[in-house]
């Protein structure tokens, strides 16, 4: 079985470890790495995996090394690798989950010909429903990329994209759950104003969104067709959609995602 080291014990790192274990990955083949000894010990006990503060040792005993830290912490995480054996001759792959940090930037700070994969998951990985986009660096083999896909598929779906598309992926799916939650929040508030009790409003909105997402995924129909099927001429849905369009729903989303993409690009510039 492939051995995995997760550097960073935050929410995303923990979610990946839980996904690995729930998918049947042997506990003995997973290790979590952190900086604070007490916290790392607690994490290891909670998750039931090995835990250490020795990054270099974790790398030497692993096949896939996941950097699960924020973009501003990526330099510190890479420095912690020290002279870790990551060159091509060691057949180990580094996977970075840091938004906006390119494979070229990572490769410049690692031993020559180190295989690097850039990945962008999203927070539904906490319930094993993530969509994770990955882009391979210059030195990654097809076999290694397959191993990375298999590992990340334990927390959801995986798509392979060209790295030039990763900032757009960050804007769409990386930040996407926040857009979804903001819409749910607004719908609940509106439902309460219409007279529904708060618990009923929350359950109605949540189940409507869940059911609609499952229908969209399973029907094979585009969202535009499903929307049209719900919208009777001059009906209640048409009235609501007319207000959303009047307020510029589509243009707002175009502008919002463009702003998120620009910010992702700035991350790359600031960490170059």
Describe the secondary structure blueprint for this structure:
Elements: E1 4-7, H1 11-22, E2 30-33, H2 37-47, E3 50-52, H3 55-60, E4 64-67, H4 74-79, E5 93-96, H5 103-108, E6 116-120, E7 130-136, H6 142-152, E8 156-160, H7 166-174, H8 176-193, H9 198-219, H10 223-230, H11 236-246, H12 249-271
Parallel strand pairs: 1-2, 1-4, 2-3, 4-5, 5-6, 7-8
Antiparallel strand pairs: 6-7
Helix pairs in contact: 7-12, 8-9
Average pLDDT, rounded to a whole number, is 91
Integer-rounded radius of gyration: 21 Å
Count helical runs: 12
Low-pLDDT stretches: none
Order of helices and strands: EHEHEHEHEHEEHEHHHHHH
Give an overview in words:
With 272 residues, the protein is of the alpha/beta class. The chain folds into 2 domains: 159 residues, 3-Layer(aba) Sandwich (Rossmann fold); 93 residues, Orthogonal Bundle (ProC C-terminal domain-like fold). The chain has an 8-stranded mixed β-sheet. The relative contact order is 0.10.
In short:
The chain has helices at 11-22, 37-47, 55-60, 74-79, 103-108, 142-152, 166-174, 176-193, 198-219, 223-230, 236-246, 249-271; strands at residues 4-7, 30-33, 50-52, 64-67, 93-96, 116-120, 130-136, 156-160. The protein has 272 residues and is an alpha/beta fold. The longest helix has 23 residues, at 249-271.
């Amino acid at each position: 079985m492939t051995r995995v080291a997760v550097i960073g014990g935050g929410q995303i790192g923990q979610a990946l470890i839980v996904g690995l274990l729930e998918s049947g990955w042997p506990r003995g083949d997973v290790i979590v790495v952190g900086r604070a000894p007490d916290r790392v010990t607690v994490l290891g006990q909670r998750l039931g995996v090995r835990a250490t503060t020795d990054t270099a040792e974790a790398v030497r005993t692993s096949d896939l090394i996941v950097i699960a830290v924020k973009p501003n912490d990526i330099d510190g995480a890479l420095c912690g690798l020290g002279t870790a054996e990551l060159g091509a001759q060691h057949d180990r792959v580094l996977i970075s989950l840091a938004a906006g940090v390119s494979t070229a930037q990572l490769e410049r700070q690692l031993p020559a010909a180190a295989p690097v994969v850039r990945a962008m998951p999203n927070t539904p990985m906490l319930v094993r429903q993530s969509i994770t986009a990955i882009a391979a660096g210059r030195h990654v083999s097809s076999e290694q990329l397959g191993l990375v896909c298999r590992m990340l598929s334990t927390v959801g779906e995986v798509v392979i994209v060209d790295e030039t598309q990763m900032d757009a992926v960050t804007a769409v799916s990386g930040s996407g759950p926040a857009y979804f939650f903001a819409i749910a929040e607004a719908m609940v508030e509106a439902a309460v104003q219409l007279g529904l009790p708060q618990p009923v409003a929350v359950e109605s909105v949540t189940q409507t969104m869940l059911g609609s997402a499952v229908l969209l995924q399973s029907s094979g129909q585009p969202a535009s067709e499903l929307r049209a099927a719900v919208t009777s001429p001059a009906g209640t849905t048409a009235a609501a959609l007319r207000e959303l369009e009047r307020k510029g729903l589509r243009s707002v989303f175009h502008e919002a995602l463009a702003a998120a993409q620009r910010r992702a690009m700035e991350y790359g510039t600031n960490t170059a």
